[in-house]
Write a structure and sequence with these properties.
13 helices; four-stranded mixed β-sheet; Endonuclease, Chain A
Length: 318
């Protein structure tokens, strides 16, 4: 990014400000010989903009998210690193950065609150690096899991992070360094699945509340096969019984099955004589017992000789 304003800065501070995305603290400018009166005149004239207390962006145009994040780091001071939701956005497993920049600082430091910055204090600061100093991917994932509102939200964070390239074994290693972590057993359950079955909160609910709770045979997860000359992947396959289950989250398919879904179901039926059952949140979460009953009927029709069980006293579907 070329910033013409940098060309007018004294040489001692020019390179530093360029590395900081055109953002600088008043202390840095003062050390370069630009006192408060000079800075004040440029801000009042609209040439520079004050983002946080003691931190400016040295141009008059739109301020990017990266510059806001850089300014928050400078405002938070020594040892600060982007963390939590902000770090998740940097690591690409959180879709939006949120209205404030979240930074973590060492516990011995006290940072005065400012609008637009949320400060967390940590006894142990994880390794942070990159162009924007940022808490690493694995500790960021566990930070977000720790603050997740419920188990579904926690599973969603884990699945999004793994899809973004976070390695499960590294998350487990990081988990071992924490004496207190909410949803610890859940993280180990999801990441420790040898069949890599869980890719969404809906899949975990299905495994737990439909198959396991009702004593149905265990399906195989994430099965990839060539059907009709194309690679397809089934969420769950009951091998040898000719039954498949596809789990469609509302956000993934807000208007029902896609054209590709329809083609895949037809091709599976024609080539493999396998039945595809499709379930959504309303079926898995809202009526897991009825879903299990329907699934058991399909399995019985295809040769399963087992008997489903009631998941509890109120289960009247199996």
């Amino acid at each position: 990014m070329r910033l013409p304003a940098l060309e007018r800065l004294p040489p001692p501070v020019r390179a530093l400000v360029a590395r900081q995305d055109g953002v600088a603290t008043t202390a840095q400018l003062a050390r370069a010989g630009m006192g408060a009166s000079v800075v004040g005149r440029r801000v009042r004239a609209g040439h520079w903009q004050r983002l946080f207390r003691g931190v400016l962006v040295l141009h008059s145009g739109p301020v990017s998210w990266r510059q806001h994040a850089r300014a928050a780091l400078l405002a938070a001071g020594s040892g600060a690193a982007l963390s939590h939701r902000t770090a998740g956005f940097v690591h690409r497993f959180v879709a939006t950065p949120g209205p404030v920049v979240v930074v973590s600082v060492p516990a011995h430091r006290v940072v005065r609150p400012q609008q637009g910055i949320e400060v967390r204090r940590r006894r142990v600061m994880p390794h942070a690096g990159g162009g924007l100093r940022c808490v690493g991917r694995e500790p960021t994932l566990l930070d977000l899991v720790h603050e997740a509102a419920d188990e579904d939200a926690a599973v969603g964070v884990v699945c999004d992070a793994v899809r973004a390239g976070v390695l499960p074994y590294r998350v487990v290693d990081e988990l071992g360094t924490r004496s207190w972590q909410r949803h610890r057993a859940l993280v180990l359950d999801v990441l420790g699945d040898p069949d890599a079955r869980v890719e969404s909160p809906l899949e975990r609910r299905y495994d737990r509340d439909v198959e396991t709770a009702h004593g149905l045979p265990r399906s195989r997860g994430q099965v990839r096969q060539v059907v009709g000359g194309r690679w397809v992947r089934a969420d769950r396959v009951f091998v040898g019984l000719g039954v498949r289950v596809e789990l469609d989250g509302r956000l993934a398919h807000p208007h029902g099955r896609t054209d590709l879904d329809v083609w895949r179901d037809n091709a599976v039926l024609v080539e493999r004589a396998e039945l595809t059952l499709r379930y959504r949140w309303a079926h898995v979460v809202g009526s897991p017992c009825a879903t299990a009953a329907q699934l058991a009927s399909a399995l019985h029709a295809r040769g399963w000789r087992g008997t489903p069980v009631r998941c509890g006293p109120a289960c009247g579907q199996v």
